């Protein structure tokens, strides 16, 4: 990375932050009459973020739209309303990002309209069925290796041994990062993803600084890789994107954004799912026995884990004009929380929503979003989780949690941050 690149990168990060401060200050000043029931539910409260389900039950007991005055956010918690909002990208904008804090970045998940459609068309060729099939052996090998690690170390923290390394190593391989660089890559990506827990406080600023340092290191790394060449024609994601692009080239800047997008969107979410899977199977031994007796249920059980755990708990939108939900009008410019976690536990959509049933087949869950921004990595995630679950069912008699688990307090992404387990071999 040249000095000019460094200055340009820091400059664009500073502009992003300054824009966020102005947009959030403007949002805080705006006073529209509020025509919605007030709720004390606070998605940014750490204890609620760690264990949100009682709060979801209270939301479901109230009206369809509720408003938190402290956070100036409207909350949708019903599956039908969350799905309708996710589909209505003409009236509900993603341009201020998927978090509560309004922040504009040029990555796919924060784009609207034609700009979004164009960038999505560029990314999709990297995730064709043929591409996914070609990655299956890598995924199966990683699942076998990481489950071995956990089996060989009774009482170890499964988050550190499996749930973090599996998706990081996979993305590293898919991006063409050589094994020798994976540890650096893991450190940078852990730092960079802190942006998903950003707020405009001193703590938020420290996280942003860490995130920028991680992104910068990653930027230097990929710029060097691009300069050396060798990606084009390779069976990596970036190689596929280059091959698909008519001119045979994409600007390095765009390739770097794709790499960052996959890291930000794909790592911590999958970590949450894999860690949560161990906790759920340990605390529902009868469901685990059902799976061991019927391994064909593995894909269905993964869907139920996706619903039950909701690794991404919510996404946000900004109303472009007044937006009606039932009898309530949400005013233009308001921030709206689409609570995926609550929608996935909606008693109107799921019988006994707080129960984990491996054979439920909850096909309408909202875990990967819906509509224009539907998750691009959904199939990859399923393949990873199914590979790990198949390994467990074949080789492990019983999963036990030893010691108290710790859950994240990130308001957006939820999963165990520490989970000591012992696996009893079959
Ligand atoms: C458990 C794992 C995952 C969950 C729960 C999840 C969840 C989501 C959700 C809810 C969205 C929609 C965001 C919105 O509507 O604003 C989304 C979008 C996205 N996801 Fe995932 N995701 C997961 C894994 C992955 C993986 C593994 C990748 C890639 C390697 C990925 C790539 C993306 C991308 C690129 C988008 C943006 C799509 C767009 O804006 O058009 N995700 N994800």
TrEMBL record:
Keyword annotations from UniProtKB, A to Z: Heme, Iron, Metal-binding, Monooxygenase, Oxidoreductase
One Gene Ontology molecular-function label: heme binding
Organism: Mycobacterium terramassiliense
PROSITE patterns: CYTOCHROME_P450
The family this protein is said to belong to: Belongs to the cytochrome P450 family.
UniProt GO BP: cholesterol catabolic process
Protein name: Cytochrome P450
Signal sequence, start to end: none
Swiss-Prot/TrEMBL cofactor(s): heme
């Amino acid at each position: 990375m040249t000095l000019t690149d460094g200055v340009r990168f820091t400059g664009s990060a500073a502009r992003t932050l300054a824009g966020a401060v102005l947009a959030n200050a403007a949002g805080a000043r705006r006073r529209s009459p509020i025509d919605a029931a007030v709720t004390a539910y606070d998605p940014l409260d750490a204890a609620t973020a760690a264990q949100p389900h009682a709060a979801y039950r209270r939301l479901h007991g109230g009206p369809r739209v509720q408003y938190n005055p402290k956070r100036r956010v409207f909350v949708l918690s019903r599956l039908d309303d969350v799905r309708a909002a996710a589909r209505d990208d003409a009236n509900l904008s993603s341009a201020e990002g998927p978090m509560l804090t309004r922040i504009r970045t040029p990555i796919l998940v924060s784009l609207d309209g034609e700009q979004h459609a164009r960038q999505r068309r560029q990314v999709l060729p990297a995730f064709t069925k043929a591409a996914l099939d070609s990655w299956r052996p890598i995924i199966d090998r990683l699942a076998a290796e990481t489950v071995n690690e956990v089996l060989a170390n009774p009482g170890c923290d499964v988050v550190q041994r499996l749930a973090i390394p599996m998706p990081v190593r996979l993305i590293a391989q898919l991006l063409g990062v050589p094994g020798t660089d994976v540890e650096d890559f893991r450190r940078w990506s852990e730092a960079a993803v802190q942006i998903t827990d950003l707020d405009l406080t001193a703590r938020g600023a420290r996280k942003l600084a860490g995130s920028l340092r991680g992104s910068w290191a990653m930027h230097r790394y990929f710029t060097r890789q691009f300069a050396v060449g060798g990606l084009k024609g390779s069976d990596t994601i970036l190689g596929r994107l280059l091959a698909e692009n008519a001119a045979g080239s994409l600007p390095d800047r765009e390739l770097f954004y794709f790499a960052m997008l996959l890291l930000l969107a794909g790592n911590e979410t999958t970590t949450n799912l894999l860690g949560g899977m161990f906790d759920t199977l340990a605390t529902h031994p009868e469901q685990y026995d059902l799976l061991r007796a019927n391994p064909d249920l593995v894909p269905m059980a993964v869907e139920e884990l996706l619903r039950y755990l909701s690794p991404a708990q919510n996404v946000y939108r900004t109303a472009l004009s007044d937006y009606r939900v039932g009898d309530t009008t949400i005013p233009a410019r308001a921030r709206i929380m689409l609570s995926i976690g609550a929608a996935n536990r909606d008693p109107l959509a799921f019988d006994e929503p707080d129960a984990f049933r491996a054979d439920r087949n909850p096909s309408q869950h909202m875990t990967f979003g819906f509509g224009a921004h539907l998750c691009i990595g959904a199939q990859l995630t399923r393949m990873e989780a199914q590979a790990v679950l198949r390994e467990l069912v074949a080789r492990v008699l019983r999963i036990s949690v030893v010691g108290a688990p710790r859950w994240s307090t990130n308001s957006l992404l939820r999963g165990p941050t520490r989970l000591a387990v012992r696996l009893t071999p079959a």
